[in-house]
Amino acid sequence: MTYHILNGELLPAATAAIGLNDLALLRGYGVFDFFSVHRGRPVFLEDHLQRFQRSAALYELSLPVSVEALREQIFKLIRACDMQEGGISLILTGGYAEDGFHADTPPNLLILSRPPVPRFADKQRVETPIKLITHRFVRELPEAKGLNYARALRSQAAMKAAGAGEILYTDGQRVLETYRSNVFLVMPSGKLCTAGSDVLQGITRKYVLQLATEMGMETETGDIPLSHLAKAKEVFLTGSGKGVFPVS
Amino acid sequence: MTYHILNGELLPAATAAIGLNDLALLRGYGVFDFFSVHRGRPVFLEDHLQRFQRSAALYELSLPVSVEALREQIFKLIRACDMQEGGISLILTGGYAEDGFHADTPPNLLILSRPPVPRFADKQRVETPIKLITHRFVRELPEAKGLNYARALRSQAAMKAAGAGEILYTDGQRVLETYRSNVFLVMPSGKLCTAGSDVLQGITRKYVLQLATEMGMETETGDIPLSHLAKAKEVFLTGSGKGVFPVS
């Protein structure tokens, strides 16, 4: 059976529910994070817990429990669901507001179990790269994982029509990020480039950069002109859900 | 007793709840509207129903019921709550998504009863104008009432510190709107000005413009340079919750 945890309480996923006055529901006000569970263990948990706290701070929200308690609840959920492969979403909302705006309670903390994100075998992945469409859009507070994905969800019809798998955001000059991945370019010189600012500081991004350096690749973290997209030898996306994903 | 309606079902407000996989909660994906109830009657209901439908269309969401059925549910809620003075929030979410992203169900429709917004007697209102602070910010899709109020909610500490009642958004050149009101300026010539584009097409705004014209005032709907703020004789805000509100 699948469970979620709401404010510390383990609840069957099918019936777990939250009050209608929650500020995430009413005002899109909250932050989240997501990590994979592989062989029963959360992947890069400490990185995700750190980022979740940073996102909360940027949104002026306080965790209602200690990080230790949050960590324990995560392991409790993994055990309850007997999860070997899957994912966990953390959500911290603005709390309940009877007037629909000013919180009357501390934030609500949701720990949601997720099915595994479909992953292809390495060979098949490289052979089935995804298409991108571009949109001019800079997220409001790109360093934080806020709940505002309206732009991405509103564009699903456009993505489908274009046969695209993700939307690449640009401010008109620079390659930024997709709505749920960081973007890497391998330039003809062999240098690996990714955006430095106005993007989410992804966890997989961090480890890809680290690994590339260890492998002796030259890396650059900074502004990427849009024109580099056409010049790049390879383009790939990274994210905690999908891992590393090639772009056609 | 207070009730809400969730997908057509009348539920006691204290226990009404929505599943944790709703896309408004998970991704801030949804639209809303709000109108006052005065002497038991919804104020400008048809305008709000029209705008709610327009917001939904801009977000690529379909109302799961006919407008006639929605109207009936609103009246049913007002009767059940025996509401004389108050407000109603309409919320249409992206629906439930087991994978946290792609909707598996039609949108969820919430009709929430709200307590009356505090209104002062006319004299007291004019004598207690509110302060504004300004932020450089243009809403993503200003014509629609989307759920993304994270910016406004995140700024409550800054507003409190400044003793401000609202945040005025500007793109650096123009006076736009506050996070929940339209802005009007009365210029030294007596002309009434309000922003034409990149703002919500407010219902109270519409009736204030209509009334001003009927009273023989000159009105202008278009770009308002920021410098006009200092020159204006009077500044006031309009919104369905607060009505008309003076700015100091």
Structure description:
- Two copies of one chain form a homodimer.
- The first copy, chain A, is α+β, with helices and mostly antiparallel strands.
- Chain A folds into two domains: 3-114, 2-Layer Sandwich (D-amino Acid Aminotransferase, Chain A, domain 1), CATH 3.30.470; 122-246, Alpha-Beta Barrel (D-amino Acid Aminotransferase, Chain A, domain 2), CATH 3.20.10.
- Helices cover 27% and strands 29% of the residues of chain A.
- Chain A has helices at residues 23-27, 45-58, 67-80, 122-127, 150-154, 156-162, 203-214, 228-231; strands at residues 3-6, 9-12, 17-19, 30-38, 41-42, 86-93, 109-114, 132-136, 166-170, 175-178, 181-186, 192-194, 219-221, 234-239, 243-246.
- In chain A, strands 8, 9, 10, 11, 12, 13, 14 and 15 form an eight-stranded mixed sheet that branches.
- In chain A, strand 4 (30-38) and strand 5 form a beta hairpin.
- The longest helix of chain A is centred in the first third of the chain and has 14 residues, at 45-58.
- The termini of chain A are far apart.
- The model of chain A has no long low-confidence stretch (mean pLDDT 92).
- Strand 3 (17-19) of chain A pairs antiparallel with strand 3 of chain B, so a sheet runs across the interface.
Report a brief summary of the structure.
The structure is a homodimer of 248-residue chains. By secondary structure, the first copy, chain A, is α+β, with helices and mostly antiparallel strands. The first copy, chain A, is built from 8 helices and 15 strands.
